[in-house]
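Example (one chain per record):
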Amino acid sequence: METFLSALVTLTVIIDPLGTAAVYGALTAGLAHSEAEAIAKKSCLVGAGVLLFFGVMGAAVLAMLGISLEAFRIAGGLLLFVTAFRMLMGDHDQQNITKDGSVYSDRGDIAVFPLAIPLLSGPGCITAIILLINKSPAWFDQLQVYVAMVLAVVASYLSMKAVQRLKTVLGSGGIQIMARLMGILLAALAIQFIADGAKGIIPGLHG
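Predicted structure:
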């Protein structure tokens, strides 16, 4: 259960179901219910598919490119920290999502971008699932990681479906507070990834 709980907490914090739901709610405002529902389903399927691919093939891709896992940990940690910083600074707040010049202003296929990529399966989550699978050589442990990944994506889907109710219960301020708290946890996780990678590359840091 330790592997499962660690994977579930890590992936849920990175995916941030409440933050993803807030972006979804802003981008689907004014759409018919059936259209918004289809967008939620497609984004979760695409996001889960991307994570599954990198969970299965990620280590082989790194080996083919000659990238060490330690280097990937450091790079992934830096990317995670950028994501955490943006969460803390409010980049995912609704007023910032809908303003002119936002990275989310192009609504061509919002199920793929930004919902599936990068919110559900961005660099941070891809990094996390490769590292979690690498730390779990036994097939049963890897299965637990994949189950945790599916549950984290399902949590995002349920949050998208309930986004209006969430706004009523938590209010926009409550959702922003949750996003800030998850940003703090994600920043700490990013620093841990960087520290673990540095221990593997720089001699003398193991102690």
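Caption: The chain has nine helices and no strands.
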